[in-house]
Structures are given as structure tokens and as C-alpha cells.
Design brief:
heterodimer, A: 556 residues, alpha/beta, MetI-like fold, Rossmann fold, 2 domains, six-stranded mixed sheet, five-stranded antiparallel sheet, 12% strand, elongated, B: alpha/beta, four-stranded antiparallel sheet, 8 helices, ABC_transporter-like_ATP-bd (chain A), translocase (chain A), nucleotide-binding (chain A)
């Protein structure tokens, strides 16, 4: 129950209330008000009075009663038209993905071109062909709405159909039709419901328009559109006659839109899993040294909902030192590094007693140039840190031209030198290529070259080898080591892989639930000389290659 | 080709794509999976590991060669790609976040594996609970949704879904690479236990040589769609016959032969 209350939102409640009220009117009004609505002979065009709240029309019929009685026909028509759009549209949009590829492409093209055609114009054509009638208005608006449903369904199906759970179900022998109803529809149903609500609102207006121009409902039947067209001759003398059906249209339209909006929110992806509150308690790292390049004291990162992500973390990185920050996902290691570079997400709050790189106070903004040139960044996935539409030369020289005021040619030359340092052959040619033309390892090397181009004092490398193959990873690690040795560039190396960290780093900080739980030298790590139980667990879990031929030693 | 091989891949050629975009992904691939063995398939991205898995599962067609399973040809020219007919080979996909339908409870997902047509949980509840217990999850998991579980727990559920059909062979495609190390270790321990308890036969696809060493009896190393080397895992890793395997082994940080010294330019 609390779950239901939590998830029902204001627009949905309001929308459903309006729609429910209209439904009651649609059911009740024709029974109770039919006489008042259809009886001729009252005073024509009388002003609002106690007997006729909104007055009477040119034939002396009660305006309010007629508007209320018209609710049933109008809503049924809109509902019929929506169903006529939705059912074939969804079936077409989903089934193309179960058929052969050539047919799919053909149908999708067809759908795209019909979507581009204004649906009201299409409806007018259909209505004109079928001749003026209630049914033709419904068919016209319904058919005109099919492409929109087909396209959205096919787009959403495309995103779901190749997901592993549908493939697995198929391999398990789940029949196609079952796969469709059991896995596909529930997963794309939310947006379709929303589309249903908004196309209901649209159908309402379009059908009314058709009736208004005389292509829809014919006398003696009437819907809101027809009432509006009857009101037109006397719109200046008797505005009430037009206002009543208009108001009903607006109320129904708003009700449908609110329901759609509420549904969209209601069906929003699952509430995120509650974040675990990290344990408190930190390990103070090595006492301050004068040569410390990075100094972090009492760093606290807090999520928007108040959950602490990093609390009270302190660390130092000496000039020319390689420090590893290891931990599992959610430990706060990336958040620490991104806070240090002032690149934390907008949704978190960063506080620290000290947050310093060299003489730069990273808690303050400003001095963007110094920040951009003193700190080099290398991210996990080079394909995501580069703009696929731009050539490498343009985007990688940006930092040099913007922050170091280099001319394009000089910047290019610097970068070519950088490429050669990380052993990218044919550097000039590479600069004119787009990211997709290079392999992942090669791209990561270009990122390293670019990070080095400003001669930074610190490189922050956030899982730079995780997305890479093991042979490429070894090469990238070698490059980082060499840069560190040649230029005494300090490196903060973030990783979940103890093996990698052990091989590369001078000092290793183990992070767990937002705190540093242990600090180790690489010798201590290599000797497995660790004291914190979490580090021990991590070590035990890390598979290492021992290469003892067990089967030869133990024939059993 | 050994007599007791459960699955035999013989001279397999697989080409993906059509017309000008066609690319040969597997060339002359041969591999035996003996009953009761865990066979590792290692290689780097693009080497064709997943393509071989998908060809075994009948998702891709083979242009030449054959895959025989229990003496029956299930892939190759002239054979129909296996679809739903045979449930004896089960796939555990890499990503535990996309392999479970987010809108179905764990119980419903497992019930579907038992009875694909009707997927009635009530009729199979006992079997579902037993399958979850086999992967160290308790019966409270039955009525919960995938988003309530961690990555490692989801991967256990995916393994339970594969096991519940009592398959002859499980194809595990990089099932630990999306997981943290401690979670990975739990999954590996689970697989070792399942091999001992149930005599599990598995094709274990990975890029992690240390996992091969820990888990696998046999290993095949793929390079550009060809088998560079295959044999008993300990032997291939300890004394590689091919240069490529040697390079792979030397690239594992902390492993023998690994160095950060750059070779002379």
C-alpha cells in the first residue's frame, strides 16, 4: 500500500480523476439528460437562467445538457480511433522485428515516410473518400495514427529485441508469440501507454475538427465538434453555446494529457537501489612531506540524497610518485579522483580541509588554464572520451591551443612528438584520422599522448587499462612507467586490479566503502604483507597466474 | 578427436555480414569438449571467441566445417542451425544486467526455463527453489525482481537458469568480466563446486588467463579467428608452444615474464 501511494503521483491522480468524472458523465448523461438535450420548443437562444444554466441554443435546447450528452459519443469515438491506431501500429512495429530483414527495412521506410505526412491531412483524405459519417471519422483518425505507433514500437523493440534475456528465452525454446507477450510487451509497454494517452487527446481534437467541418458526426447525432459547428453562426450573440463544448474538449484533453504525463512518471525506471552507508574510520597516510605534489585532507563527497560517498579521506602524492588507488565498484575511488580534478558530477557535494595539486587549490574554481595544464587525465574507455565525429588532431590539440595559446601548427607538432613518445608510428597520419579508425589500445595511447602534451605534473588515470586487452594493457602500463621515469610525472592510478597496481605503483592505497583502509608499499603488496582483512579478502579473490603445472605434480 | 567428446568443432569457418561487409571471423577452428571437462577459450577482443559461442548456440551459421554434439551435426553446411529444439546446450551471457528480464521475478524467469511455453511458477516452485539453492541463493529470491540483486547475484541467477534445464553443456561467455574481483572469485568457486557435484561440462570463454589456470582442464587460444594453440590448460600456460600464447602469458601483470621495462626502440 505504501508502495502504491509512493508511486502514484499528482498528475496521474488528477488525470485519472478527470477521466473518471468524464466516464461517469458519459455513462449517466444520455439516460438522464436526453430529454432536456433533444426537446425542441423552449425559448430559442435564451440567456443563462436557473432552468437553463448555460442558456438554450437556436432551437431552444439546453446547451449544458447537449454538451454533457455529447460526451459519450465523443469519448467513444476518440477511444475507438486510438485503439484503431494502437493495435495495428503496435503489431506492425513489433512484428517487423520477427520477420526477415529485407521486409523489415521496407516496412520501416514506409512507416518513416507516412509519419512525415501530417496525420490530419491524411485523415481528411480518408474521411473524404469514405464520405461524411461517424464511422469514417473514427476510421480516418485511427488509420492516420497507425504510423506513429508503429514507429515508436519498432524503435523500442529494436532496443529490446537484441537484449540477452530475449536471446536466452529464444534459445530456451520459448515460442515467438510468447516471447512477444511475455518479454517484449511488458518492457516496451510503459512508453506505449503514455503514447496511447497523448494520442487519445489528439484523436479527441482531430475527430472534433472533422465533425466541425462536417466530415464527422451527422445530424441528428452530435458530438462536441458538431455542437461547435452548430454554435458557429451565433458565436458573437450567444458565446455560451460555443463555450460549453469547448470547455468539455479542454477538460477531456487536459485529463488525457495529465494521465499520460502521470503514467510516464509512474512507469519511470526502478528507484535506484539504496546506497549502503559506508563505515567510518580512516587510515591517515604518510605524514606530510615538503615534496608532496598532491595533498588531500579530510575529503568528503556527499551524494544529493545525503549519502556519504567518500568521508574524511586524506592522502598525499609525492612529486614523481606513482600511487595506486584500488577498490571495488562503489568504493569511492573514482569519486575521489574526479573530486581532485574538479570533475565530480553536479549531483554531489565535495568538501575538504585541503585539496591541493602543487600550488593550486582545487576547491576553488578559476585558474582553469593551470588546472588544464597541470593535470592530465586518462579515462577508462578511450572510445567514449573522444568525439567520434572529429578528427583526432583537432580534438587532441584543443588543450594546447586553448590553454597554452599555441598556434595550431605548433600544437600539432607537439602532439606528433607526443605520439612518437608513446610509440605511435606515422603520427601525422593518425592526427587526420577519426577515432573509429584506431584500435582501442592505439586510442588509449593517443589519450596518454594528449594528457602528456602540456607537461602536466600529475596524471590521473582512472582505470585506463580496464577496457583493453591484456597485451595492450601491458604496453600501456609500460608507457606510463616510462613517462614517470623520464619526466618524474606523478601518477594517480585508479584500478580494481591488484595485479596491475602491484606491477606499476610505488605505493598503494586500498579503498573500501568511502575510506582508505590500508596503505601499502608495492613491496609489502608483493610480499602479501597486509593487515586489513578487506585487503586480505581482495588479495585472496584476485586470481594470479602461478604457472605451476598441477597435473604434472599431482597425477590424480 | 577423442571418442568421449561431448561436442566436437571441426574445421569451422564462419563468415558474418553480407556482401561487401562480409568478414571471415573463424577460420579452420577445431576443438573438442570432453564430457565432464571445463574447456577454456581465450583470446583478445575480436579474436572470435563469442562468435564461436554463438555458432555453437545456433545463432550464427557456419559456412564450412561442422559442430557435432553427441554425435549429431548441429552446425555446418546442410545442417539446420539449432534453435529451440535442443535445450541440452545452455548459454550464460556476459552481462548480468541485460540477461534477466527486468519486469519478471526471478521465479518467473526460472520457471520459464523449465517450461518455456507456459512458464507457470506455481507448478515448478520446488524446482526453482532447488536451483537457486544450488547457486547459494535462498528462496526469498523467488519473488524478487532482478534490480534488487547485485551483479554477482544476478550472474548466479543466470547460472541457475542454465542449470535448471539439466543441460549437457554450458557455454559461459565472459561471465565474470563484468564483476568485481571478490564477486568473480565467488562465481569461480561456484563453478568449481558445480563441476565436482554435478559433473558439469562447460566451455568457459574468457580473456583472463589466471581464471583459465584456476578453473579449466583444457584450453584453446584463439588469435584472429584461428586456434593458435590448444591442449591441457596447465601445459599450454606453463610451456606455450606458440609465440602468441607466450606473449599473452608474459602480459599478465605480476605473472612470470612480466616486465614494465620498455623493449629497446
Amino acid at each position: 500500500m505504501t508502495d502504491l501511494r509512493r508511486r502514484l503521483n499528482a498528475p496521474l491522480v488528477a488525470g485519472l480523476a478527470i477521466m473518471a468524472a468524464l466516464a461517469v458523465v458519459a455513462i449517466v448523461a444520455p439516460f438522464t439528460l436526453r430529454e432536456a438535450a433533444d426537446t425542441l420548443g423552449g425559448a430559442p437562444r435564451s440567456a443563462p437562467s436557473a432552468e437553463h444554466w448555460l442558456g438554450t441554443d437556436s432551437l431552444g435546447r439546453d446547451v449544458l445538457a447537449r454538451s454533457l450528452v455529447a460526451t459519450r459519443l465523443t469519448l467513444l469515438m476518440a477511444l475507438g480511433a486510438t485503439a484503431l491506431s494502437a493495435i495495428p501500429g503496435i503489431l506492425i512495429g513489433a512484428s517487423v522485428w520477427f520477420g526477415p530483414r529485407t521486409l523489415r527495412n521496407l516496412v520501416l521506410r514506409l512507416i518513416d515516410s507516412t509519419v512525415a505526412f501530417p496525420s490530419l491531412v491524411l485523415a481528411l483524405v480518408i474521411a473524404a473518400i469514405l464520405g461524411p459519417a461517424t464511422s469514417s471519422a473514427v476510421i480516418a483518425i485511427g488509420v492516420a495514427g497507425i504510423p506513429a505507433f508503429a514507429r515508436i514500437t519498432s524503435n523500442m523493440t529494436a532496443s529490446v529485441i537484441h537484449s540477452d534475456y530475449i536471446t536466452t528465452a529464444r534459445l530456451l525454446g520459448v515460442p515467438r508469440w510468447r516471447n512477444f507477450t511475455r518479454h517484449l510487451m511488458p518492457n516496451i509497454g510503459g512508453p506505449l501507454l503514455v503514447l496511447g494517452a497523448s494520442s487519445f487527446a489528439l484523436a479527441l481534437l482531430e475527430i472534433s475538427s472533422l465533425s466541425f467541418v462536417g466530415l464527422g458526426v451527422q445530424s441528428p447525432d452530435y458530438d462536441w465538434g458538431r455542437l461547435l459547428s452548430e454554435a458557429l453562426p451565433s458565436i458573437y450573440s450567444m458565446p455560451m453555446i460555443a463555450i460549453a463544448p469547448s470547455a468539455m474538449l479542454i477538460i477531456a484533453g487536459v485529463g488525457a494529457m495529465l494521465t499520460g504525463d502521470g503514467l510516464a512518471r509512474h512507469l519511470d525506471p526502478w528507484s535506484s537501489a539504496p546506497a549502503r552507508a559506508p563505515r567510518t574510520g580512516t587510515v591517515t597516510t604518510t605524514a606530510p612531506r615538503t615534496s608532496d605534489l598532491v595533498q588531500i585532507d579530510d575529503l568528503r563527497v556527499t551524494a544529493a540524497n545525503g549519502t556519504p560517498l567518500v568521508h574524511g579521506l586524506s592522502m598525499r602524492i609525492g612529486a614523481g610518485e606513482i600511487v595506486g588507488l584500488v577498490g571495488e565498484s562503489g568504493s569511492g575511488k573514482s569519486m575521489t579522483a574526479m573530486s581532485l580534478a574538479r570533475l565530480q558530477p553536479d549531483s554531489v557535494t565535495v568538501e575538504a580541509a585541503t585539496l591541493r595539486v602543487g600550488d593550486l587549490d582545487m576547491r576553488k574554481g578559476g585558474r582553469r588554464t593551470a588546472m588544464a595544464t597541470d593535470i592530465g587525465l586518462i579515462f577508462q574507455d578511450p572510445t567514449r572520451s573522444l568525439n567520434p565525429a572529429l578528427r583526432l588532431g583537432g580534438q587532441l590539440t584543443e588543450v594546447l591551443t586553448v590553454h597554452m595559446s599555441m598556434l595550431r601548427r605548433a600544437a600539432r607538432r607537439t602532439l606528433v612528438d607526443g605520439f612518437e613518445r608513446v610509440r605511435i608510428r606515422d603520427a601525422e597520419h593518425r592526427l587526420s584520422q577519426h577515432p573509429h579508425e584506431l584500435s582501442g589500445g592505439m586510442l588509449q595511447r593517443t589519450m596518454i599522448a594528449s594528457a602528456l602534451a602540456t607537461n602536466p605534473r600529475l596524471i590521473i588515470a582512472d582505470e585506463p587499462t580496464t577496457a583493453l586487452d591484456v597485451t595492450v594493457q601491458a604496453e600501456v602500463l609500460r608507457q606510463l612507467k616510462r613517462i614517470n621515469q623520464d619526466d618524474a610525472t606523478a601518477i594517480l592510478f585508479i584500478s580494481h586490479d591488484l595485479g596491475v597496481v602491484e606491477a606499476l605503483c610505488d605505493r598503494v592505497l586500498v579503498m573500501h566503502q568511502g575510506s582508505i583502509v590500508e596503505e601499502l608499499t608495492s613491496e609489502q603488496l608483493a610480499a602479501r604483507d597486509v593487515s586489513h582483512p578487506y585487503t586480505q579478502r581482495l588479495l585472496d579473490a584476485t586470481p594470479s597466474l602461478s604457472l605451476t603445472d598441477a597435473r604434472q605434480e599431482d597425477p590424480a | 578427436m577423442s571418442i568421449d567428446a561431448l561436442l566436437t568443432v571441426r574445421d569451422l569457418h564462419v563468415t558474418l555480414g553480407h556482401g561487401a561487409r562480409a568478414a571471415t571471423v573463424l577460420t579452420d577452428v577445431s576443438l573438442d569438449i570432453p564430457k565432464g571437462a571445463i574447456v577454456g577459450l581465450v583470446g583478445e577482443s575480436g579474436s572470435g571467441k563469442s562468435t564461436l559461442a554463438k555458432t555453437i548456440m545456433g545463432i550464427h551459421r557456419a559456412q564450412a566445417g561442422a559442430i557435432e554434439f553427441q554425435g549429431e551435426t548441429i552446425a555446418g553446411p546442410g545442417s539446420r542451425p539449432r534453435r529451440s529444439a535442443n535445450r541440452a546446450i545452455q548459454l550464460v551471457p556476459q552481462d548480468p544486467y541485460s540477461s534477466l528480464d527486468p519486469r519478471r521475478t526471478v521465479g518467473q524467469t526460472l520457471a520459464e526455463a523449465i517450461d518455456p511455453r507456459r512458464a507457470r511458477l506455481a507448478a515448478h516452485r520446488d524446482a526453482v527453489v532447488a536451483a537457486l539453492e544450488a547457486v547459494a541463493l535462498d528462496d526469498t529470491a523467488v519473488d524478487r525482481y532482478p534490480h534488487e540483486f547485485s551483479g554477482g547475484q544476478r550472474q548466479r541467477i543466470a547460472i541457475a537458469r542454465a542449470l535448471i534445464t539439466e543441460p549437457e553443456l554450458i557455454v559461459a561467455d565472459e561471465i565474470t568480466s563484468a564483476l568485481d574481483v571478490s564477486t568473480q572469485a565467488e562465481i569461480i568457486d561456484l563453478l568449481i563446486r558445480l563441476r565436482e557435484d554435478k559433473g558439469l561440462t562447460m566451455l568457459f570463454i574468457t580473456h583472463n588467463l589466471a581464471l583459465v589456470e584456476r578453473l579449466c582442464d583444457q584450453v584453446a587460444v584463439l588469435l584472429h579467428g584461428r586456434v593458435a594453440e590448444s591442449g591441457p590448460a596447465s601445459q599450454v600456460l606453463a610451456s606455450p608452444a606458440s609465440d602468441y600464447t607466450r606473449q599473452l602469458v608474459a602480459s599478465v601483470p605480476g605473472g612470470p615474464g612480466f616486465t614494465l621495462e620498455s623493449p629497446a626502440p
